């Protein structure tokens, strides 16, 4: 298969979508769409997300030292798109589109009632790089929808959870599982 070179960029990188939740000083929740998110430690469990530019979410995570990371499903696409394209400086985004939220079970953060999988996170470190910032946080609690029964490694059924997948400029959905880790060893 022939290859060609392109300039370094962020143009193609499919990833799950999360809404990062924080409270404003007046107690109003603020959520921002973040797709640059992944785990960076198992023990203790830590995740990191990156954000660039001037954003209220960045300011609130820095100030409050905690946030929620709410997995976005395809049914939440309108909400995620609205939150990702509307400034929290100027709007009460949850009120604008009637989004329901509650407080976290462990941390004083807003969590989305509609999200099936939510990480409650305490900020550990921030790293400024280029025009962005990396936030590293310890997972203090995970809220899981009661319909998700088997949460053991490799057993969560992503097709039924239906996560929203983002690749720059487009949203996608998963359609099938095509194998499991260790598949190549079992077919030898």
From TrEMBL:
SUPFAM superfamilies listed in its UniProt record: FMN-binding split barrel
Annotated SMART domains: Flavin_Reduct
Cofactors needed by this protein, per the record, are: FMN
Q: Which residues form the Flavin reductase like domain?
A: 10-155
Is Flavoprotein given among the entry's keywords? yes
**Which terms are listed as keywords in the entry?**
Flavoprotein
Q: Which domain of life is it from?
A: Bacteria
Position of the signal peptide: none
Residue intervals passing through the bilayer = none
Pfam family for this entry, one: Flavin_Reduct
Tell me which family the UniProt entry assigns to this protein.
Belongs to the flavoredoxin family.
Name listed for the protein in its UniProt record: Flavin reductase family protein
Organism whose genome encodes this protein: Tissierella carlieri
The lineage, from the top, is: Bacteria, Bacillati, Bacillota, Tissierellia, Tissierellales
């Amino acid at each position: 298969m022939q290859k060609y070179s392109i300039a370094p960029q962020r143009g193609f990188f499919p990833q799950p979508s999360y809404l990062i939740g924080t409270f404003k000083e007046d107690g109003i929740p603020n959520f921002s769409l973040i797709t640059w998110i992944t785990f960076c430690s198992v023990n203790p469990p830590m995740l990191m997300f990156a954000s660039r530019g001037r954003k209220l979410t960045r300011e609130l995570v820095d100030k409050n030292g905690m946030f929620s990371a709410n997995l976005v499903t395809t049914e939440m696409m309108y909400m995620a798109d609205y939150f990702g394209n509307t400034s929290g400086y100027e709007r009460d985004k949850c009120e604008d589109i009637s989004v329901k939220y509650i407080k976290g079970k462990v941390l004083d953060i807003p969590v989305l009632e509609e999200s099936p999988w939510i990480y409650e996170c305490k900020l550990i470190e921030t790293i400024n790089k280029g025009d962005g910032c990396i936030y590293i946080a310890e997972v203090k609690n995970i809220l899981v929808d009661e319909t998700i029964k088997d949460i053991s490694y490799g057993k969560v059924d992503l097709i039924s959870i239906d996560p929203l997948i983002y690749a720059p400029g487009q949203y996608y959905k998963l359609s099938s599982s095509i194998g499991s880790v260790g598949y190549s060893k079992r077919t030898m």
